[in-house]
Amino acid sequence: MWQHTQDSWFLAVNGFARTTPALQAPMRLYAEYGVVLFAAVLLLSWWWARAHPDTETMAKALWAPAGALLAIGLNQPLSNLVGEARPYTEFPHALVLVAHSQDYSFPSDHAVMAGAVAVGVLLTHRRLGALTVVAALLLAFARVYVGAHFPLDVIVGLLFGAAVSLTGYLAVRRPLASAVAGLTRTPVRPLVATSRAGVVR
Description:
There is one protein chain. This protein is mostly helical. It has a single domain (2-186), classed as Vanadium-containing Chloroperoxidase, domain 1 (Up-down Bundle), CATH 1.20.144. The protein has helices at 2-18, 21-50, 55-82, 87-90, 109-124, 126-145, 151-183, 189-192. The longest helix has 33 residues, at 151-183. It is elongated and about 60 Å long. 40% of the residues are buried.
């Protein structure tokens, strides 16, 4: 029942992709290279956090990329355990706008990364985080649009990445904030605080 529903969703999105040729190039580019945007967002989040007087804000900004890497690392054995084939294996005549991949489909690495970064940035800066959530949802849709994933691959990927990022931060927030406070008293202070930012203990 659920597999039939998922197949129907995938075919509906794939049919939409066929009827929107003007979107195919930008969606393909975003599906493949959207990770660059998320890297830029992480950099912007870190830069903003440097001027914040609360060291916990910088701790959140530093955790965001670490949480994303952790989520992707945890996703690899999960993906291998499930072993779900890509959509174009089940539907060889589906429109595929990206190169075929040899790795497994569920959960989507791109969606895991996007979900983790979105939560990490949302913890640091609400407005930037809200925009990142929108970007994450768009990336997840783009991965289905180009034929690389089933809808469930990206839905679970977003949720898994978000959960790893949030729970991981809650587990390390205190020692990480203490570490950042310590760094503000070392020569690397410019990396974690501007000269105007104080230290909140």
